[in-house]
Amino acid sequence: MTLMRATGLAKSFGGLRAIDGVDLAFEAGKVHSIIGPNGAGKTTLINMLSGIYAPDTGTITFDGEDITGRPVHRFAAAGIGRTFQNLQVFFNMTALENVMTGRHLREPVSLASALLRTRGLRDAETACRDKAHELLRRVGLAGADHVAADSMPYGALKRLEIARALAAEPRLLLLDEPAAGLNATEAREIDALIRKLADAGTTIVLVEHNMALVMEVSDHVFVLDRGRKLAEGTPAEVSSNPHVIEAYLGSEEPEAAHA
Ligand SMILES: Nc1ncnc2c1ncn2[C@@H]1O[C@H](COP(=O)(O)OP(=O)(O)OP(=O)(O)O)[C@@H](O)[C@H]1O
């Protein structure tokens, strides 16, 4: 089943076509990666898929519903979660508190109950705490509930971000470079976590430069180059595609590519 579909997406900045007529389909419970050389348009695309940018043209449907142009909180409420390339962690909070901040979409609190600290509010807080505790365990941070975020190592903070995004119970999770800055062991742990999330039914869309991770974890890979979709397919298909090889060589060795 196709959970999310983007058709003919385009976005320009001034005269620059950052994304130029891209079609994508994300299947429920699968791991998809979006790769491409620097400046290919990956960030622009993920920003459209999460509702941060409205596309200039094209449509985005989620679970059969057209959500094009809706504000970002409506994308989140529909079931689209994301993490960011740069950590969006509250460093003055504990790990548990950070994850609890991700629950507000699912457990909204009325002003009256917050002011009166009703029984309902206290029950909701307990449920929220229990859920956050469970999510920390799920991402491999069991025992870190009361650890201050500013004392956690970088690899743990990347997982904390994922736990916080999961707190909103997304059906589709966009991960923006979850392995950036991680060593090989930590990247393998992220790989295992992504697989576990997909196996539990969460649809994953990964933007990532770490090719070992992409090739290992993905069911389907989309390759962007200069705002267009250059190729798509299984990891084996795209890695043997001559156009993809050329695009990557071209970005790393411009002299050789244009010789
Ligand atoms: N807000 C913006 N204003 C103007 N130009 C932008 C903006 N955002 C992106 N661009 C341009 O659009 C093109 C695509 O950028 P984008 O950041 O989406 O690529 P990317 O594939 O994510 O690159 P990287 O791998 O380096 O993060 C680039 O030429 C970039 O300079």
UniProtKB/TrEMBL annotation:
Record SMART domains: AAA (SM00382)
Gene3D superfamilies: P-loop containing nucleotide triphosphate hydrolases (3.40.50.300)
Biological processes, Gene Ontology terms: D-alanine transmembrane transport; L-alanine transport; L-isoleucine import across plasma membrane; L-valine import across plasma membrane
Keywords: ATP-binding, Cell membrane, Membrane, Nucleotide-binding, Transport
InterPro entries, A to Z: AAA+_ATPase, ABC_AA/LPS_Transport, ABC_transporter-like_ATP-bd, BCA_ABC_TP_C, P-loop_NTPase
Any GO molecular function: L-isoleucine transmembrane transporter activity
Record-annotated ABC transporter domain positions: 4-251
This protein's name: ABC transporter ATP-binding protein
